[in-house]
Fold Sigma-70 family RNA polymerase sigma factor.
Amino acid sequence: MPKSPLPPGHSRESFPTTRWSLILEAGDAGLDAHKALAELCRIYWYPIFAYIRRTGHDANDAEDLTQTYFARLLEKGVIAAADQRKGRFRAFLRTDCHHFLIDQHRRHSRERAVASISIDTSDGEGRYRHELADGNTLDHHFDRTWAVTLLGRVLELLGEEYARSGRSLHFDQLKIVLVEGRRSISAATLAARLGISENAVNVAVHRLRKRYRTILEEQVAATLDDPAEIADEIRSLFDALTK
């Protein structure tokens, strides 16, 4: 099957070596690859925690297993053994964690590894309990929590950009359009809250959406081996949210 084209306005040069492609190319050797993997683990630990909880482990066991899993992932040899034909970090983690849990069950041991990464999982159970119960499969639930985590990360980075330019108030109001949809609030209401014209609101919303899309593509690219898969991965993430 031919790969999807790159997002409009982008070339392969627009997306330098991504975190996941760097990791795959280096196996698990090299400081840069190790740092890149550690950063991805810190961002996407929650889908693994939720996946483990959904398999029947209680909160304490899930926290321990999450820490153990990522400590193991950072050990030498694990990434080098990855099937590089499966170039999506999301798919790799989901499959690898499944095999990890099988191995843990077979050994009847959950000895905690000496962690080479610090991941704060303290809010994992609170987030897990907040989620609505559903009848989705384990894999679909993983993809959904992955999508929520990634989109939350995009919104966080966008908010930080606005804060650095002294526009936190604008972001707090304009992000309603991103989170709840354009019809959730009128341009007139936003204009009144921000003290600007409706035309200025429309321009600001357009710029916000454009920047949001750019950050989204950058964050998705960081989890892929091939930037040509960005559009497909974004579609997969939004499909996971709507099914």
Summary: Residues 16-131 form one domain. Confidence is low (pLDDT under 50) at residues 11-16. Residues 138-164 form the longest helix (27 residues). The chain has two domains: 16-131, 136-243.
